[in-house]
């Protein structure tokens, strides 16, 4: 499954690349590189991890976006938004339908061009932190 996805995107599915891709896929929400390294450090060093992430982003397999304090976060899929908890730092993916995005930004973009990717960032306090 992961191998096919990578190959389809033009990425040679080496063991480490598949490992990184699966770690991003498994993560709940979007993860930062240091968090990924925490689960993968037995298999690769930081330089290798960053190189693989760059490659996956370049081929559109993994999306990179700016999280809290300008740290890069990674998740699967493009064109969706994120909710960042300013309290615990959790980054939750908002899976927006194209129709939602269209309604959200469409009127502002009329005549400006064609939308190919959208980065939407919402900040707040997550429900878990609100309970504390
Ligand atoms: Zn939180
Ligand atoms: Zn995401």
TrEMBL record:
<protein>
    <submittedName>
        <fullName>Fur family transcriptional regulator, ferric uptake regulator</fullName>
    </submittedName>
</protein>
<dbReference type="Pfam" id="PF01475">
    <property type="entry name" value="FUR"/>
</dbReference>
<feature type="binding site">
    <location>
        <position position="126"/>
    </location>
    <ligand>
        <name>Zn(2+)</name>
    </ligand>
</feature>
<keyword id="KW-0408">Iron</keyword>
<feature type="binding site">
    <location>
        <position position="102"/>
    </location>
    <ligand>
        <name>Fe cation</name>
    </ligand>
</feature>
<dbReference type="GO" id="GO:0003700">
    <property type="term" value="F:DNA-binding transcription factor activity"/>
</dbReference>
<keyword id="KW-0479">Metal-binding</keyword>
<feature type="binding site">
    <location>
        <position position="88"/>
    </location>
    <ligand>
        <name>Zn(2+)</name>
    </ligand>
</feature>
<feature type="binding site">
    <location>
        <position position="129"/>
    </location>
    <ligand>
        <name>Zn(2+)</name>
    </ligand>
</feature>
<dbReference type="GO" id="GO:0045892">
    <property type="term" value="P:negative regulation of DNA-templated transcription"/>
</dbReference>
<dbReference type="InterPro" id="IPR036390">
    <property type="entry name" value="WH_DNA-bd_sf"/>
</dbReference>
<keyword id="KW-0862">Zinc</keyword>
<dbReference type="InterPro" id="IPR002481">
    <property type="entry name" value="FUR"/>
</dbReference>
<dbReference type="InterPro" id="IPR036388">
    <property type="entry name" value="WH-like_DNA-bd_sf"/>
</dbReference>
<dbReference type="GO" id="GO:0000976">
    <property type="term" value="F:transcription cis-regulatory region binding"/>
</dbReference>
<dbReference type="GO" id="GO:0008270">
    <property type="term" value="F:zinc ion binding"/>
</dbReference>
<feature type="binding site">
    <location>
        <position position="85"/>
    </location>
    <ligand>
        <name>Zn(2+)</name>
    </ligand>
</feature>
<dbReference type="GO" id="GO:1900376">
    <property type="term" value="P:regulation of secondary metabolite biosynthetic process"/>
</dbReference>
